[in-house]
């Protein structure tokens, strides 16, 4: 009786083909995203910083910067969330 119960539990834990396909697409997407990340040295390069001439110039530069370093910013945010969950697991 106990063996059939364990076998049933193992079958229910096996991933379905749809779940495997989803995880595969998710993994491929993450690999592509990480491959698109820009070098960290380029992100923190202080020589690239200059005072914008106007508000519209600043906003344009911010939009361009966000688009260019999007993956880097996402990785920073995910790292902060992970660190927060490690140090304060009950804060969910």
Helices and strands, in N-to-C order? Answer: HHHHH
Into which percentage range does the β-strand content fall? under 5%
Radius of gyration: 22 Å
Structural class determined from secondary elements = mainly alpha
Total helix count? 5
Largest sheet: none
Residue stretches low in confidence (pLDDT < 50, at least 5 long) are none
Q: What is the averaged pLDDT score?
A: 81
Structure in words:
The chain is mostly helical. The mean pLDDT is 81. It has helices at residues 2-13, 17-35, 40-43, 55-68, 70-87. Helix content is 73%, strand content 0%. The two termini are 40 Å apart. The chain is elongated, with a radius of gyration of 22 Å. The longest helix is centred in the first third of the chain and has 19 residues, at 17-35. It contains 5 helices and no strands.
Question: Which terms summarize this structure?
Answer:
single chain; 92 residues; mainly alpha; 73% helix
List the helices and strands and how they pair.
Elements: H1 2-13, H2 17-35, H3 40-43, H4 55-68, H5 70-87
Summarize the structure.
It is built from five helices and no strands.
């Amino acid at each position: 009786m106990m063996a059939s119960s364990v076998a049933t539990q193992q079958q229910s834990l096996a991933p379905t083909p749809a779940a495997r396909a989803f995880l595969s697409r998710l993994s491929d997407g993450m690999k592509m995203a990480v491959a698109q990340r820009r070098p960290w040295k380029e992100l923190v390069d202080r020589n690239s910083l200059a005072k914008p001439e106007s508000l519209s110039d600043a906003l344009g530069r911010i939009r361009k910067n966000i688009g260019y370093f999007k993956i880097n910013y996402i990785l920073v945010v995910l790292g902060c969330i992970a660190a927060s969950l490690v140090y304060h697991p009950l804060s969910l």
